[in-house]
Predict the structure.
Amino acid sequence: MEILVSGSLAIDRIMTFNGRFGDHIVPERVHQINLSFTVDGFNAYFGGTAGNIAYSLAMLGQRPRVIAAIGADYRDYFTRLGENGIPTDDIRIVEEEATASAFIVTDLADNQITGFNPGAMKHPAGFDFGTVNPQETISIVGPGNLTDMANFTADAARAGVYTIFDPGQSLPAWDADGLRDCIRNSDLLIANDYEMALIVERTGIDEPGLLELTGALVTTLGEQGVRITTAGGDMHVASVSTENVVDPTGAGDAFRGGLIMGIIHPGPMVPASISPARLERAAQIGCAGAHFAIQMPGTQEYRYTQDELEAVLRRAYGG
């Protein structure tokens, strides 16, 4: 099965401030802020939605095709992808830009101040869906270049490729019509509970109405697990109990890789064959993947074996 993963490729630069931002903000001067924080450390991590989901799939033995744009500083990221068996052929190199970057400062209360440079993500990556066999292909369209997101959902629908739409952090940039079109052109809509509420607000369509546009809704609920909504009703999948939580960042993308793996295995994979029971098992695999991700800092630092995955699934879900 060919897996197409589109979205962003980014470098996350994370710094730690050994204090609390609130102690340095004068409430009556919030209209004129000029602050400088001395940080205790600096770490750079490979990230971005496309990179993170592809990495999750690589842990599951897959070789997804990443469709994204990256900057002139691409070499280290390409090396990283290659080390994990992820091809780079479909990634557009934008020589006049840097790779998208997030600059994140976190204080002792887990408050964050983030600056984001979209860099190469401002440029569409482009992809020809006419080059793939729709019966042997699944696509996830994640947050990234808006032109790509609109085109990929529409092109995949025309080609008959099963597509998961994951608007995520891009939601504030969408108007109602564009968002509705992407959902209508997808076979499954995935979002966390806050994002799902924002989708309802932005489109003016409640969840039963969204279900009339797409085949299923998957709503992630953090430590409360996952809600799957189909024409047959709602199902709840519990999260995997994890004692050693280090960093929840990237758990959602790890979940998405596991969800895709559960959808495509065992085959055949056509929309009519994706039963609620199959989606339930896919969500369980996704929750197991998230369990590993949150035990490490960054979004692509965790690793696990098939045996370790199966052990977690047996412990959490009995099989």
Summary: The chain has one domain: 2-6+51-99+122-317. The chain has a mean pLDDT of 92.
